[in-house]
């Protein structure tokens, strides 16, 4: 049984979160709190497995409270955030600080009636094995790279990917090969995440746009929402965004991106990071079969050892590595 403390200054929202979590018989809400002070006391008294946390609260805000949780009593925290530009930016900061995952606040009772997503996230959080404090800003990489002309890097990530990608891309040099990323997150969040990566990492990072020609020293993050991202054009690789049904349960899908890179027939490195499910595993196998080099994050440093575990079981992973060794290994493979 996963024991949950729900923290939100709105009694109505706490009730909606309870309703969503009640869909899973393996989850029980052991308490509620309306602010950080009350939450701190109830964490001590109830010792929950997971905390759902609002960011905008009176007194100490959710971000400051999250920092204290991760520093003093690390535990899985799921951010339940408003889908606004301000809320998205704050949520990305929370994920970078070690929050397990995020979920957009529901607008009404009707919106939660058939939605079991939050319960699935909370259950996975309760089973996660990684407990970490805030991650410092990545160190600027001092990697010399000759580079393979025409080569590129493709990366897929899901739960735990924000913190992990900050560490990986933070280890890339400013002149890294063109890099394309699919990170599972809500549509409004990807622009804020691209901006955060751009501020803290040596390469130029931007949210991908259809038709953009891939350039060295640039990292392109797939927009969340209704479109898949693939790389097309053997002579001059460029980004293509298109609408379509979900693939491997996601849109954008890591499998779609990896398969498009495999079809290019160019030197490439595929990297599959932490995340629930199996998206990207089959695509990484296709990349390896097409001659690409491949890396999977190891279990010890994955927030959720799902996607890279499936890829490893399929024989798609050439090297299985802890997160702190991935950036240097990608540059070595790409050289």
From TrEMBL:
Top-level EC class: hydrolase
Where's it found, cell-wise?
A: Cytoplasm
Any one GO BP annotation for this protein: methylation
Q: Which GO terms describe its molecular function?
A: methyltransferase activity; phosphorelay response regulator activity; protein-glutamate methylesterase activity; protein-glutamine glutaminase activity
An example GO CC term for this entry is: cytoplasm
Give every Response regulatory domain span: 3-120
* 4-aspartylphosphate: residues bearing it: 54
Say which family it is in. Answer: Belongs to the CheB family.
**What protein am I looking at?**
Protein-glutamate methylesterase/protein-glutamine glutaminase
Organism, by scientific name, is: Sphingomonas carotinifaciens
Q: Which gene encodes it?
A: cheB
């Amino acid at each position: 049984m996963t024991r949950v403390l729900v923290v939100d200054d709105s009694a109505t929202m706490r009730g909606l979160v309870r309703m969503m979590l009640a869909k899973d018989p393996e989850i029980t809400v052991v308490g509620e709190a309306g602010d950080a002070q009350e939450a701190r006391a109830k964490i001590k008294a109830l010792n929950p497995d997971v905390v759902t946390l609002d960011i905008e609260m009176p007194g100490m805000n959710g971000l400051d409270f999250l920092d204290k949780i991760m520093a003093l009593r690390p535990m899985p925290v799921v951010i339940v955030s408003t889908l606004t530009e301000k809320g998205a930016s704050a949520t990305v900061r929370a994920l970078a600080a070690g929050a397990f995952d995020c979920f957009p606040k529901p607008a009404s009772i009707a919106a939660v009636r058939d939605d079991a997503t939050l319960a699935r996230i909370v259950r996975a959080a309760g089973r996660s094995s990684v407990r970490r404090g805030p991650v410092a800003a990545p160190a600027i990489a001092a990697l010399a790279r000759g580079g393979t002309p025409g080569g590129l890097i493709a990366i897929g990530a899901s739960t735990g990917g924000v913190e992990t990608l900050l560490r990986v891309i933070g280890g890339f040099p400013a002149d890294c090969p063109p890099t394309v990323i699919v990170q599972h997150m809500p549509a409004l969040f990807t622009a804020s995440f691209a901006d955060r990566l751009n501020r803290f990492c040596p390469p130029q990072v931007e949210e991908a746009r259809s038709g953009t020609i891939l350039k060295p020293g640039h990292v392109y993050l797939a927009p969340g929402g209704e479109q898949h991202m693939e790389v097309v054009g053997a002579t001059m690789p460029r980004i293509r965004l298109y609408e379509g049904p979900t693939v491997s349960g996601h849109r954008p899908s890591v499998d779609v991106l990896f398969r498009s890179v495999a079809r290019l027939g160019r030197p490439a490195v595929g990297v599959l990071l932490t995340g629930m499910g199996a998206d990207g595993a089959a695509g990484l196998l296709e990349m390896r079969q097409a001659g690409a080099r491949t890396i999977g994050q190891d279990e010890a440093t994955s927030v959720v050892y799902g996607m890279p575990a499936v890829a490893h079981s399929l024989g798609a992973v050439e090297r299985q590595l802890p997160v702190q060794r991935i950036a240097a290994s990608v540059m070595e493979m790409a050289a």
